[in-house]
Amino acid sequence: MNxxxxxxxxxxxxxxxxxxxxxxGNVTLRKEVRARAKEKLGLDLSDEDYWxxxxxxxxxxxxxxxxxxGGSLRRTQAVSKPTIPAxxxxxxxxxxxxxxxxxxxxxxxxxxxxxxxxxxxAEVTAQKGxxxxxxRWTRPxxxxxxxxxYPFVPGKALEVITFEIKPLGVxxxxxxxxxxxxxxxxxxxxxxxxxxxDFDETLLDRVQxxxxxxxxxxxxxxxxxxxxxxxxxxxxxxxxxxxxxMSSFIGSQIGHSNQLRLQELxx
Length: 267
Description:
CATH class of the largest domain: Alpha Beta
Helix content: 25-40%
Shape: elongated
Structural class: alpha+beta
Number of strands: 9
CATH topology of the largest domain: Trna Endonuclease, Chain: A, domain 1
Number of helices: 9
Radius of gyration: 23 Å
Largest sheet: 6 strands, mixed
Strand content: 15-25%
Distance between the termini: 70 Å
Strand order of the largest sheet: 4-5-6-7-8-9
Oligomer: single chain
């Protein structure tokens, strides 16, 4: 096929992928695009031609590959649009999520991770005014720092865990790169999306795959104050940041009282 035919077939296939963000199976798409290619362009589309066009749309970022028998496609643009929020959430904007999210992390998430309440500090680190962070993406929204001991490992281990929080409707893959940048100062980093009830988590398939490549964790939650609505889609991998960078982050971004508490725990 010449480049002009490829472009026309890409347009045909893209038009057949539902504009509302729903997935369409490759079996059906292949049959329909073959019929339209014959009718409108006079082209006999082979399976090889279909997968060539399929791959081109995916490479351009216009569609996402999904699950199902034979696989499926959904429009990337539709996924990126805000999902209709669940009514009665009571939270307006990202800033309103920080405090209840922090409280849930301290109360429930840490317990699930077997981190005793007496061995960590945690705080909102997103709003630190004019303090230097070293770059656009180097300030997490919430940070938990634990001092842990292990039966067969000498000494104490300091573990910095960061959380990047995104409000309803913000499901961009850019959040993965933002969260990955925390690895310069953190051992584990999580990208956390507020989602409506009955959210179709397959909409985050591409985000999950990219997060896995970078070792970033992915968490969804409906209500930041209710741990029962939290769901870990991807577990964060343990990183080994430069100790000097980690110490500098604690010294510049963590409150004085928590710094003193950490010094007590480390002794």
